[in-house]
Amino acid sequence: MNKQDIETAVKAELNRIAPDIDADDIDRSENLRDEFDIDSMDFLNLVTALSKLLGLNIPEADYDQMESFDDLVGYLSKKAPA
Amino acid sequence: MPSLGADMEAGTLVEQLVQPGEPVKRGDVIAAVETQKGTIEIEVFQDGTLQEWLVDLGTKVDVGAPLATILAEGEATTEPAPEPTPNPNPTPAPKPEHVAQEPEPKPIEPTPPQPQQQRSSPKPDSRPRITPAARRRAAQQGIDLSSIASKGTITLADLESPTPKAAATPKPAPVSSMRSAIASAMSRSNREIPHYYLSHAVDLTAADDFVTRFNADRAPQDRLLLGAVYARALAKALSKYTEFNGHYIDDAFHQSGAVHLGFAVNIRGGGLIAPALFDAEAKPIEDLMTDLRDLVERARTGRLRARELSEATITLTSLGDRGVDQLYGVIYPPQVAIVGLGTPRLQPAVHDGEVAPRLTSSLTLSADHRVSDGHRGALFLKAIDKNLQRPEQL
């Protein structure tokens, strides 16, 4: 999966959780949870879904590498096999 | 039609999931009703055979009204009298003749008018798309978003463009149906319940460390959130402080043996539901977390069960990690207490004789003076605190 595919997948999952916010309108370098107004349960569901979809182990200790939308996509791209 | 909780008195039958002649078992979901808080599933409370539906799809049904006739085993099929079902009474062994009753006193006031038939579950296009910045600005300035003309997503530019300037004088927005349900329950609460309030600073470092350790080697679907730890600590404390767990109905407190813990869930787009985690006193923390995930998911997609809305015996409300320090809860009748947790944050605190950064929050209690007083309330909060200091024993 390339970076573009991963970004599409992340947007799709975020749209499922926060359908009222368009991923194209957010500030991609700002705090993801603030931008999408998602709580810890939403974030856990996001990580669960992405982990299953991409077949990745996403440890909780790595959460601080996923602060913003760009951070999250970058983190997943680095971990996902090309 | 069973009770749908203190704030709703009717629902519209939208699904009949069992055909006449089919057998039903206690606990089966046999119908769904559309309400101000989304689609609610109706469970049957006795075994038998569904003889006949008494209400057509699309009909509005009051709580307590018969929905269908159920024949108990061996009962004649020609029975003409409509037998109401399901029985909202949580205690088992209802007699077949028992008439379903609204278990709570009827509020004195009539139901507030519902201005519009609006689904309360989040729907992608139920409100205008708007960027977060624009949403904050609109909220700050009281701008009615429906007055903003925008192609697609509303942005800051739309709010600042000259045409909608007039919108800065806020015109009253129509109250959503969920909002009127909340308003009705909270008005009743403030009218009937003599609240008292207590607050206690609590060190959450141990609880947070426990969650971190627990989650370290687990896949996301098996991870805990602090909310589950709070729920477990609260449920355990209630085994000793029983006067905070139950319902106040008809001038008497009915203590509950089981802890059906209402967990306040924020609904996107505005709104709040506190459905019950059943038997929280008897479940290990992992099971509570599984139940909590399922409950929050269904609260947000609008697929709860009537029992989950009417049978909570106490409410827990946690502001999560993006909120503020402290909250003062309003009790959800006929319950008698609501426990709140503010947003945990690192604060300087004295720990083991040294000043150290500790993860701290405010634990609050709003409780009913008809049932308890501040002395017991304080001991109750301290018991929750103690449980939070020893999370591995939860």
From TrEMBL, chain A:
Domain of life per record: Bacteria
Name of the featured protein: Acyl carrier protein
Ranges for domain Carrier: 4-80
Automatic annotation (TrEMBL), chain B:
Record's GO cellular component terms: cytoplasm
Peripheral subunit-binding (PSBD) domain location: 129-163
Enzyme class: transferase
Residues covered by the Lipoyl-binding domain: 1-71
Keyword flag Glycoprotein: no
Keyword Nucleotidyltransferase attributed: no
Alphabetized CDD domains for the sequence: lipoyl_domain
A matching Pfam family: Biotin_lipoyl
Region (Disordered) residue spans: 74-146
GO molecular-function terms, A-Z: acetyltransferase activity; lipoic acid binding
The enzyme's E.C. designation: 2.3.1.-
Bias kind Basic and acidic residues: ranges: 95-107
Record key words, sorted: Acyltransferase, Lipoyl, Pyruvate, Transferase
Compositionally biased residues, Pro residues: 81-94
Co-factor(s): (R)-lipoate
Subunit structure: Forms a 24-polypeptide structural core with octahedral symmetry.
Family membership: Belongs to the 2-oxoacid dehydrogenase family.
Protein name, entry field: Dihydrolipoamide acetyltransferase component of pyruvate dehydrogenase complex
